[in-house]
Amino acid sequence: MTSREKLVAAIADAGTYLCVGFDPPLDVYRSPDALIEAGRTLVRIASDYCAAFKFNSAFFEAHGGAGFDALAELIASVPERRYVIVDAKRADIGSTAEAYAHALFARLGADAVTVNPYMGRDAVEPFVRTPEQLAFVLAVTSNSGADDFQMLDCGGVPLYEHVVRTFDRTEWRDRLGYVVGATRAELLAAVRKIVGSDVPLLVPGVGAQGGDIAAVLDANAGGIMLVNVSRALHERFAGGTAGEFAAVLDRYRRLLATR
Amino acid sequence: MTSREKLVAAIADAGTYLCVGFDPPLDVYRSPDALIEAGRTLVRIASDYCAAFKFNSAFFEAHGGAGFDALAELIASVPERRYVIVDAKRADIGSTAEAYAHALFARLGADAVTVNPYMGRDAVEPFVRTPEQLAFVLAVTSNSGADDFQMLDCGGVPLYEHVVRTFDRTEWRDRLGYVVGATRAELLAAVRKIVGSDVPLLVPGVGAQGGDIAAVLDANAGGIMLVNVSRALHERFAGGTAGEFAAVLDRYRRLLATR
User: Fold this and answer.
1) CATH code at position B178
2) Domain tally for chain A?
3) What is the ipTM, given to two decimal places?
4) B107 CB burial (10 A radius; 0-12, 13-18, 19+)
5) B49 vs B208, which has greater pLDDT?
6) Which residue range(s) make up the domain with A160?
7) Residue A85 forms beta bridges with which residues?
8) Chain B residues within an 8 Å CB radius of A138
9) Is this prediction's pTM over 0.80?
10) Which residues in chain A are contacts of B68 at CB distance < 8 A?
11) Sign of torsion, CA B63 B43 B234 B143?
12) Residue A116 is nearest to which of B26, B118, B143, comparing CB atoms?
């Protein structure tokens, strides 16, 4: 099964585009053991409500080597029917990108990773050397700094669109997806139109960041998609009971139902 | 002392712009212990010939958590008078970038890191919150993919130049430097002209990648600079005697002498 097929199967099985993000803040989870304990609980409860998990590499690296290993342990606890994204936003020249790909896919066990397009196509290609690998290229991010460069007019086309069109013309386009923030649904619609319905989009920015779920579903037009929710869930996870956490998961699951 | 002052002092003390890169391939160094042993030897010998070391995070991460800790151990072995760059090419939204900064500066002990500009200013600012931190923003990279986006015409100005001008106008410009590949000395001259002589440039791409050292020195015009050599040194390090390694180090030290 290719990584994209695994993603499609996970969305179909869960009946929702919900991706649960785990960005465990250093001041809340003070040790790698605390990360593993909380992460295992999160995975166990959330697996019934989501298609995928997105683990944010930074918050594990902040704990040093033991944090890195905690992430590997956590990913190993995810049920096989759920898709795993390691959000690492890497990119580098040839052999370095290969080393990152080894760390993320072979060591950590990711099904997909996030990558940064600035260095160009040859800095992304090593992340998708096999069909079991998939890389979500950053197109439009959900932070305010997205305006600094991503929206620049490059000969009549904004940079983010040039990025998407460039990668979508590669021979390995079937192993790519794109990150498009939920806060700009019209750009999500524009990207979906360029790549067609069978290219996965990873959409952060709903929940705490305020993206409109109905607008996201509309813009996606039924394509392969994961909508990531992290902070809005985490408040209930860290501050409430398991039942309260399950309730908010169920709410997002239904809001993001595939039909 | 600020990070930039430490860099200036290291260059003055060594009398050379030489930065020694350590990108230990996974198929040569098969364990974290092998990384540490080789790395310590490299640091011990090379400290007499260079101003700085650049450690490539990817090749340590490829060994998992123990690789990450090996990098911290190696950095701790670098003499205080030498500058340490962790080449990690990170960037992410607010709290995530803070976690990366914690991992790279607090956990690993970097004096400076490399960062990717695509996500904008707010994805870089968390890396330079204190004067003891410095971030080299990718401007022109030395890979062929640099042409894909970095050279795009954005309203009469290539993207890389727009990146440099945007960051150079921030309030934290004194904590920034730029990565400009040696393979395009004319672009190095252009960046130097924009930022002035007191902003550090990190220049990869001489040695194995074929950049012309004389052209680089000319383009730099006496500004703060580090010229990284990795692969060309590594061949002698892995395949020769300590004396042969010292000889090639000494050759690059002299080629890159500050006067």
Assistant:
1) 3.20.20.70
2) 1
3) 0.97
4) buried
5) B49
6) 3-255
7) A54, A112
8) 118-119
9) yes
10) 61, 64-65, 68
11) positive
12) B118
